[in-house]
Amino acid sequence: MFVSQVVHPENSILTETFSKYHQAVILGSGPSINNLDLTVFKDDFVITMGNFYEHPDIAVINPKLHIFAASHPPITEKVLVDWWTRCHEILPPQTPILIAAKDKIIAQQTFKGRKLFFYSYGGTLPADFTKKILSPWSVTIIGLQLAVYCKIPKIVLLGINHDWQCIQPYTHFYNHEKPSLEYYLKKEGIKISYEEQKQPFPKERLYREYELYQQYESLKKEAEKLNLQIVNGDPFSHFDVFPFEQRSDLILNQNQ
Fold first, then answer.
1. What is the pLDDT of residues 126-146, one digit of tens each?
2. What's the superkingdom here (predicted)?
């Protein structure tokens, strides 16, 4: 039987730091985020990802950890540095970042003075961040693995809706024409395949969607084994792998 080796022993501090929280809130970048008051979670274990640092209330939301997936094509080194430099300027300085070990050198050069943690892909469940973790089809899978690894009793998902991958336009809560990964890619003349997508159900996207949902299902089973609860709290999301607990009380304009 293959047993994964410890490659990041320093990450044991993640459980020591975050297991005290009773609730984790994982914030995606779906358009629905613009309709929700997220400042109510400022005292929870808030996990943000990717471009979420562009949220106008990021300082009040006060994420306890920010995550970046491993860099991959078509992201170039220049795009990565520009993107991360912007993040370092905006993300609260006390917020540590969890980054792929393959990007460690650029991360240490860009995020000077900030606490950084590193992970490696190529592992399996159960999640253990001192070892290699499950290679994700979405950065949200990393966030979920972390929350389960820290054994947070309740895990709430907001701003996560994968419909755009097959039937909806590629949009987020932020503007792609302003600083963001999409902005820096376009600035370098790099086309974004999702935006170029013309077919409503391209088979390549459907194959990836299937793999992604299988990962969500596996994490759901893993959480259940540990008596942890994962719910979709977004009242505008149709993402149904996890039970809905739609938080209509978060809607900013109840008249809309």
1. 999 999 999 999 999 999 999
2. Bacteria
Strands (E), 139-251: 154-158, 229-232
Strands 23-27 and 121-123: unpaired
Position 235 pLDDT exceeds 70: yes
- Is the pLDDT at 104 greater than 80? The verdict is yes
| Phi, psi of 45, deg, nearest 5 | -80, 85
Q: Which whole number is the average pLDDT over 223-232?
A: 98
CB atoms under 10 Å from CB of 7, counted, come to 16
Q: What is the pLDDT of residue 256?
A: 47
Rounded to whole angstroms, the Cα distance separating 120 from 222 reads 20
Q: Residue 13 is which amino acid? A: I
d(CA 62, CA 55): 11
CA–CA separation, 110 vs 119, rounded Å?
17
Phi-psi region of 177 (alpha: psi -120 to 50; beta: other; left: phi over 0): alpha
Is residue 130 within 8 A of residue 8, CB to CB? The reply is yes
Is the Cα dihedral 235, 155, 28, 207 positive or negative?
negative
What region does 183 belong to: left with phi over 0, alpha with psi -120 to 50, or beta? alpha
Could you tell me which residue, 130 or 73, shows the higher pLDDT?
Answer: 130
Query: What tokens appear for 208 in the block?
Result: 């990836």
